């Protein structure tokens, strides 16, 4: 897998970090699907992801090179669109730093990740190996940690892998 090319990214979690990771992908000209919880009763189903994208346009420094590019971020929710995960070559999980929430999400999405895709968590402090334990066995070797550092002008990114990482 020495020539792995990311043609589409899915970002799980439309909070501050997840939305800005989506913006970073769009700046790199990589299509992205931004997932979050489904909207509450009376709200559009993708309301949280849509609101996060609108918020990106107002930030300073701007995470998007051009605010018009926000339209390129596709929105989705965890109840209606798990099948869209199959389109992604790279999936970056960026939900709150709670092991139980991450394990619940991983159990929900594991069967919807393409056999070639890399699955990464944006955790800044949870055990990658313990997070990987909630994944189907066939996905664990494609699971790693990647942590984006902000502000956007910082050229930093940390990566960490579980004990059974393999991309051969």
Fold blueprint:
Layout: E1 9-12, H1 16-27, E2 32-36, H2 47-56, E3 73-77, E4 90-93, H3 99-109, E5 118-121, H4 128-132, H5 137-140, E6 143-148, E7 157-161
Parallel strand pairs: 1-2, 1-4, 2-3, 4-5, 5-6
Antiparallel strand pairs: 6-7
Question: How would you portray this structure in words?
Answer:
The chain is an alpha/beta fold and 168 residues long. The chain has a single domain (9-161), classed as NAD(P)-binding Rossmann-like Domain (Rossmann fold, 3-Layer(aba) Sandwich), CATH 3.40.50.720. The protein is 25% helix and 20% strand. The protein has helices at residues 16-27, 47-56, 99-109, 128-132, 137-140, and strands at residues 9-12, 32-36, 73-77, 90-93, 118-121, 143-148, 157-161. It has a seven-stranded mixed sheet with strand order 3-2-1-4-5-6-7. The protein is globular and about 40 Å long.
CATH architecture: 3-Layer(aba) Sandwich
What strand line-up does the widest sheet have?
3-2-1-4-5-6-7
Say what the CATH topology is. Answer: Rossmann fold
If helices are DSSP runs of H or I spanning 4 or more residues, what is the number of helices? 5
H and E order: EHEHEEHEHHEE
Helix fraction, binned, reads 25-40%
Question: What count of domains describes the coordinates?
Answer: 1
Radius of gyration: 15 Å
Shape: globular
Mean pLDDT score = 89
Number of strands: 7
Distance between the termini: 6 Å
CATH superfamily: NAD(P)-binding Rossmann-like Domain
- Major sheet: size, sense and barrel closure? 7 strands, mixed
Beta-strand fraction estimate: 15-25%
């Amino acid at each position: 897998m020495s020539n792995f090319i990311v043609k589409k990214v899915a970002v799980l979690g439309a909070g501050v970090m997840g939305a800005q990771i989506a913006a970073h992908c769009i700046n790199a000209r990589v299509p992205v699907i931004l997932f979050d919880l489904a909207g509450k009763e009376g709200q559009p189903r993708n309301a949280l992801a849509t609101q996060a994208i609108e918020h990106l346009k107002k930030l300073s420094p701007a995470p998007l090179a051009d605010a018009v590019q926000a339209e390129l971020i596709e929105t989705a929710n965890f109840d209606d669109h798990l099948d869209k995960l199959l389109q992604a070559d790279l999936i970056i999980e960026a939900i709150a730093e709670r092991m139980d929430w991450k394990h619940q999400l991983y159990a929900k999405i594991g069967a919807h990740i393409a056999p070639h895709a890399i699955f990464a968590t944006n955790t800044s402090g949870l055990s990658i190996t313990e997070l990987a334990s909630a994944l189907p066995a066939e996905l664990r070797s494609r699971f790693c940690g990647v942590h984006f550092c902000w502000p956007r002008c910082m050229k930093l990114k940390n990566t960490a892998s579980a004990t059974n990482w393999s991309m051969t």
